[in-house]
Amino acid sequence: MFKTTIVKTPGESFIHGLTTSDLGSPILEKALEQHKAYIDALKTCGVEVTVLPNHEDFPDSTFVEDTAVLTPEFAVISNPGAPSRNGEIFEMEPIIKSHYENIYYIKSPGTLDGGDILQIDNHFYLGLSERTNLEGAEQLKQILELEHYQATIVQLEKFFHLKTGISYLGNRTIVVAGEFIDHPDFNSYTKIIVPPEEEYAANCIRVNDYVIIPAGFPQTKQKMNEAGFRTIELDMSEFRKLDGGLSCLSLRF
Ligand code: CIR
Which residues of this protein are catalytic (predicted)? Predict the structure, then answer.
């Protein structure tokens, strides 16, 4: 069960955030509405939501997930791999300190984005991506093993972040797309397979009794519902334009 979440309002500079997509510039007003709906959905799931104000120096800082890895016992402040995002951790650190006593740090030359870290029960999967390097992943692996978790490092082929292509729903069930559908590291789980045309729906979040999914992906939604998961759909169009998904917009613990 999650009790608490942290989100951060997009600022005016949000429209200049990093992207690899060709979906056009986000519309700020729409992004703000979608962000409000996201907060409402989290509240429906029964969690407290701490809303941090926008910070104009950091266009991507609404994607708070990348700044930390949180567990019930300890927090790890990440070291985001994009230079324009690295300073986001300094604003997040005091907030995390207000919730945790046991805090670790990923240190340079290690880099790590929270979007590359997937927890499945007591096992973490650490993606190596454009943002998370081997040094960063190995630092986190050591921390996790010290804290009695298991950790597996996974090399990404095409996905932006690990969680762009895989999510954990609970009950040993994962949602997988693209390179993760037949990936040997994930073969022991029950899989909900996302078809190529719905790939964006592979990033979804289980929050207590619900799975929050992006709107507009009916096949994936149906498969989740048939597997017994209750879904809440949210329009994510403006965050998608900046390579952002549902998990990126919150820290959950
Ligand atoms: C970036 O390039 O860093 C942002 N535009 C998107 C970050 C998405 N975060 C995530 O998947 N955890």
Answer: 161, 248
Over residues 240-252, the pLDDT tens digits come to: 999 999 999 999 9
245 lines ligand 1 (CB under 6 A): yes
The residue whose CA is least distant from atom 12 of ligand 1 is: 115
Total tally of structural domains belonging to the chain = 1
Ligand 1 binding pocket includes 118 (Cβ within 6 Å): no
Q: Which of 111, 161, 248, 250 to mutate to test the pocket of ligand 1 (most atoms within 8 A of CB)?
A: 248
Show Cβ contacts of residue 132 under 8 Å, excluding neighbours closer than 6 positions: 81, 111, 112, 113, 116, 126
pLDDT tens, position by position, 146-194: 999 999 999 999 999 999 999 999 999 999 999 999 999 999 999 999 9
Closest C-alpha residue for ligand 1 atom 1:
18
pLDDT at residue 5, rounded to an integer: 98
- Residue 233 sits in which domain range? 4-252
3-state secondary structure 150-202: EEEEEECCCCCCHHHCEEEEECCEEEECHHHCCCHHHCCCEEEECCHHHHHHH
Between the alpha carbon of residue 9 and those of residues 5, 29, 32, the distances in Å are 13, 12, 7
The predicted model gives 55-81 an average pLDDT of 98
CATH number at residue 93: 3.75.10.10
Tokens of 22: 């060709």
Single out the residue of 67, 247, 229, 81 nearest to residue 164, CA to CA.
247
116 is in an annotated binding site: no
Residue 248 CB–ligand 1 contact under 6 Å: yes
